[in-house]
Amino acid sequence: MSIRVLQPGLLDTIQDAGRTGYQHLGINPAGAMDRIAMYVANSLVGNAPTEAVIEMHFPAAALLFEDFAMIALSGADLGAMVNDQPVPVNKPVLMTRQAVLRFTRPVSGAICYLAVRHGLDVAAWLGSYSTHLKAGAGGFEGRALQRNDVLPMRQVTPYNKFLQQHLARELPWSIGVRDLYTTGNPIRITTGSSFALLNEHARQQLTDAAFTITQQSDRMGFRLQGPALKLAEKTEMLSAGVTRGTIQLLPNGQLIILMADQQTTGGYPRLAHVITADQPTLAQLQTRQQLHFNLITTTEAEDLLWHQEQRLQLLQNACKLRLEEWLSQYGLH
């Protein structure tokens, strides 16, 4: 009843929706970089949307399924294969005993999520299964996955009746995610508490210029390269609370966008915030990709998030119905 790591990837960790309510203690929420992909993968296999998943960057881990499993991949397409059989994203797939899942090439996106029906049997820390790398807690032993790690599955269902001689077999439905992301469009932002400190030219540059994601980007933050933005006048700032999506102005005039493993306070000017609805799109951008910003109001940001959440709820309900029908057809649970 487990998944064994045959070969570790660049950074494979257990993540969920993150742990909230502890930033005043200096503990950031962590959690999945792309909450939409986590939600979709879990919905496809009948889990709660925020169940723990495996978050993978390319090169990703090679995983041996030591027992039957129903899985779903979402987010980046990293060319998943079982032997010579491609494994699609955004579709439930059954895995037989001793099937090995490998990721062969980055096709699109940056981060892939793997959900397993009934979830992984890992220990929670402060109410979350997310891996907190700095604290060495949560997820699997508080660290990235390594060779020969064994991830227990909570429950195993024998799918041999449907699999027959197949190592892996797709189920006959999928989720279309295109309208959940804003790929190809500017990343939408709202003004931050320090936006007014920018000089007039810098304010214009923030929304007119292109910014490139540098190789110094990680789960803590995306460092951007673009025109050096300047404040109208130099000012000393006290440290204050920051959150995922906060855009800070560094001393050299460049920007950093705080991501899932962000610090809890910061003293750099907080120019803007990436809206929650666009944070998954941002997370799937790769290094050296360019992005533009589009300034919108807080009311518009709230409306966009509400519609996105409604869409995700409808998709979850549809997946639940399809899965229940299929399980009933084969006398499974």
Give me a quick take on this structure:
With 333 residues, the protein is an alpha+beta fold.
Describe this structure in words.
The longest helix is centred in the last third of the chain and has 32 residues, at 298-329. Helix 1 packs parallel to helix 5 (298-329). By secondary structure, this protein is of the alpha+beta class. 18% of the residues lie in helices and 27% in strands. It is elongated, with a radius of gyration of 21 Å. An 8-stranded mixed beta sheet has the order 21-14-15-18-17-20-13-22. Strands 7-6-9-4-1-11 form a 6-stranded antiparallel beta sheet, with no helix packed on it. The model has no long low-confidence stretch (mean pLDDT 94). It has helices at residues 35-44, 160-163, 200-208, 279-283, 298-329, and strands at 2-7, 13-15, 53-57, 62-65, 69-77, 80-82, 85-86, 92-95, 99-103, 108-116, 150-152, 168-170, 187-191, 211-213, 221-225, 240-241, 246-249, 255-258, 265-266, 270-274, 290-291, 293-295.
